[in-house]
User: What shape does this take?
Amino acid sequence: MVNYPNGKKGIYKTDKTSASRRGMTLEKEINMTNAYYLDEGLANIHKKPTPITIVKVDYPARSAAKITEAYFQIPSTTDYNGIYRGKYIDFEAKESASKTSFPLESIHDHQISHLRDITKHGGIGFLIIRFTQKQVTYYVRATDLFDFLEKEKRKSIPLSWFEKKGYVIPESYVKPVDYLKIVDQLYIESEDK
Assistant: This one.
């Protein structure tokens, strides 16, 4: 059961038709995972709304209002943020259809700058990158991305780099993108030692 801010209750659903949940986007899987985390009291992490200004709305009926024109107020930062075990978390999620690389044009300069600020102030910043053709999802520390960008002059990050520097995110039916396992491994468990 999921408790929404408006007091309504919902149920997080799982897709039991396929182990790989074919057809479900990365964003939907992360949202489902976050709903599980929230419901279980593990973390409070949400997708950030994209800031838009509505210019025109058509009202064919009061219950059927339709936005017909809008524009982005400012560039959005990253996709998700929240808190886990007293740590601020902020991350971007992307999919790549390539079998061999991830195009850097998919990540914007303002997003990289935002992640730099997060890590500078002690937050946990990272990316979740899914290679859809390979059905593998990686957790990449923002600091590793910064290092790549400083050392390499490429337009894409090769899959081999993800295999060396990234962490494969475990999946299950109720937690299809269980990225907190990696956060625990990299940040929480190291502090407990």
User: Anything to note?
Assistant: Residues 26-39 form the longest helix (14 residues). The chain is about 30% helix and 30% strand. The first strand starts at residue 2 and ends at 3.
